[in-house]
Specification:
single chain; 244 residues; alpha/beta; Uracil-DNA Glycosylase, subunit E; 6-stranded mixed β-sheet; 9 helices; 6 strands; 41% helix; binds uracil
């Protein structure tokens, strides 16, 4: 019983630190909202029976990919980057102009905001993994088309199976629907955990949307607090707790 009390106190203190650090989200909301998910979290474990390749093998297999029409207009293929054994993974939609030029995910303005979100959670870019549904930029940043998603997503799943993250944050509608095999508005999916092939997926709004609608940052912080609580419940501590 004493152990339990100590654990609860420890978790509460850690959460309070996280909430204080969540200053990027205007009026971050009350810490009591973070006390636990309102919807039961699926308990299924990551899929361990699929043949597992390393990230380097998956990258080799992709090569200079020409599996969909986007190869004709892209500059650089954007594979993804971060920790190979990340407990926490973020999946976006597709590379934009900056990512296409540089070859890394989320390096533009939306990426700067994603960095702030990650840091508010007590993590950093090198300690999480970041990838997209598509590895090539759709011209003019249009939405991914079904044939492009079908060609590309097996490689994302291979990356996920290589990393085996405990939680995947899906950023925006195409990422959430791609991972969940759904076609639903992000507002209907966000704010609770979903199961996708045994992985816990938490959909939330895309950082690019937050740049246009900053008042939704509060909703995103509410969602990210669910991730913080669930990682704590799984016994996973952030490597860089925010300064108090
Ligand atoms: N938006 C995305 O969805 N992914 C990126 O890598 C950059 C912007």
């Amino acid at each position: 019983m004493d152990d339990l009390r100590l654990l609860v106190g420890d978790l509460r203190r850690q959460l309070e630190r996280h909430v204080r650090a969540g200053a990027w989200a205007a009026r971050a909301g009350s810490p009591t909202r973070a006390a636990g998910p309102e919807v039961a979290v699926p308990v299924t474990e990551p899929s361990v029976d699929t043949p597992r390749r390393t990230l380097a093998q998956i990258r080799d297999e992709l090569g200079e990919c020409q599996r969909c029409k986007l190869h004709a207009t892209r500059t650089k293929l954007v594979f993804g980057n971060g920790a190979e054994d990340a407990a926490l993974m973020f999946v976006g939609e597709a590379p934009g102009a900056d990512e296409d030029r540089i070859g890394d995910p989320f390096v533009g303005k939306a990426g700067e905001l994603l960095d702030k979100m990650i840091e508010a959670m007590g993590w950093t870019r090198p300690t999480v993994y970041v990838a997209n549904i598509l590895k090539s930029r759709p011209p003019g940043n249009r939405n991914p088309q079904p044939d492009e998603v079908a060609a590309c997503i097996p490689f994302l799943w291979a990356q996920i199976d290589a990393i085996r993250p405990r939680i995947i944050v899906a950023l925006g509608r195409p990422a959430a629907n791609g991972l969940l095999g759904r076609d639903a508005p992000i507002s209907a999916l966000r704010g609770r955990f979903h199961d996708a092939r045994g992985y816990k997926v938490l959909p939330t709004f895309h950082p690019a949307y937050l740049l246009r609608e900053p008042e939704r940052k509060r909703d995103v912080w509410t969602d990210l607090k669910l991730v913080i609580v669930e990682l704590d419940r799984l016994g996973i501590r952030s490597p860089h707790p925010p300064k108090t």
